Amino acid sequence: MTAGSAVAITGVGIVSSLGIGAKSFCNDLMNGISGICPNAHGVTQVWAPFAEFDFSTEIKRLNLSEDCQNKVIRTGFRASPPIQATILAVAEAWSQAELSRASPEKIGLIVAGSNVNQLDVFDAYQRSFQQRQVRPSYGAQFMDSHYVGSISEAFSINGEGYTLGGASASSGVALLHGYRALHCSEMEAMVVVGAPMMLSQVELNGFVNIGAHFNAKVPEVHAFACRPFDVEAAGFVYGQGTGVIIFQREQDPAHRTMARMLGGSMCLDGNQSTNPSVDGEVRVMSAALENAGII
Amino acid sequence: MNVVTDTENLVFTIIAEKAAAIIPGLEPSSISMDGKLEDYGCNSIDRTDIVWMVQEALGLNIPVAEFSGVSDIRSLIELLVRHMDAQ
Q1: Chains A, B: CB contacts under 8 A, how many?
Q2: Cα gap A210→A205, rounded to integer Å
Q3: Which of A22, A127, A165, A211 suits a disulfide with A12, CB 3.0-4.6 Å?
Q4: Which H or E element spans position A189?
Q5: Is A27 left (phi over 0), alpha (psi -120 to 50) or beta?
């Protein structure tokens, strides 16, 4: 594959506070429906938690082969809710891209995010302080790479795989790496996963104390708590969600192209704070347009 | 033939419930006290989690080293019941 050529997006999956499925997520966004609700017992006043679902039932709704369904259910059945949600989002994208027909060694996996399971870490520490036993599987599951292992097992992915961190921009960084992997590796498909950020009350306390999380009077319409770019913006609202995109080479006629990625770019501002930089934004947007061959 | 006490039956029921919560499609009623969790598709991590879940349900906190002699469901029940009696 030549450098700078487009890659096709052949599958998309989403599980969030709004429920399951990319199509319904899109419709909800278009209709202004929000998953933000009061958080009666939490550190924050409002949040957008995962919608509840039955894992096995939802997997069986998807257009997957019986073998694939059984394997996904075997891996996800005992998994924690965020891993189940992530596997479900991968399954949605997988069923669209029909990746079961591809060679497992040519399918790669990137899981975006770091320190994604602070909720379980917090629980394990609490138990430890109370001299209670920590769940044994925690020893194998506290690392972010557990997502890579679980997804690769559920879908028999045998190509390259890793986690990739870039704070709030992790998914963007992962998309660019997925795009690049199709240009410079043997991979023919890349599954790019935005893992849910499961924050404990410790991280949420930090976000509230630093002024990043919404902590003002809750508006009558809960969704109005979150208003980025507004003069009355008062911080972000914590939400739980996971999204998946599958990239394949554009030349492959076997799949349906939903969208194309033409290129991308990223850069640092040489700054450890989270404040925006107009110079950095202009630089990275210009480089992305140039990389995509648009300017 | 071994006589099974009410306590042993209770512990067995909890083990079967927890195993069924880990393995999709596994019915608690299909599990035999004479079998091994391995026979029902539980891998090593599944087994340690099941033991932990049963201890949670029974309010036990048994040192891990004590499980080294456990080889099947019956010997697991014996160990758990011994600790329940000691409490």
Answers
A1: 28
A2: 9
A3: A22
A4: strand A189-194
A5: alpha
Tell me the ipTM for this assembly: 0.80
SS3 A120: helix
Contact between A135 and B46 using a beta-carbon 8 Å cutoff? no
Name the residue among A73, A131, A140 with its Cβ closest to that of B45. A140
- Tens digits of residue pLDDT in A127-184: 999 999 999 999 989 999 999 999 999 999 999 999 999 999 999 999 999 999 999 9
Q: How many CA atoms lie within 13 A of A146 on its CB side?
A: 20
0.90 exceeded by pTM: yes
Model pLDDT for residues B42-76, shown as the tens digit of each residue: 999 899 999 999 999 999 999 888 998 899 999 99
Question: How far apart are alpha carbons A235 and A225 in whole angstroms?
Answer: 8
CA A96 to chain centroid: 18
CB contact under 8 A, A74 and B21: no
- Which of B75, B21, B73 has the alpha carbon at shortest distance from B49? B21
Dihedral, CA of residue A227, residue A231, residue A235 and residue A241, to nearest 10:
20
The first and second tokens of residue A31, run together, are 């209709």
Chain centroid to Cα A34, Å, comes to: 18
Cβ separation of B24 and A56 shorter than 8 Å?
yes
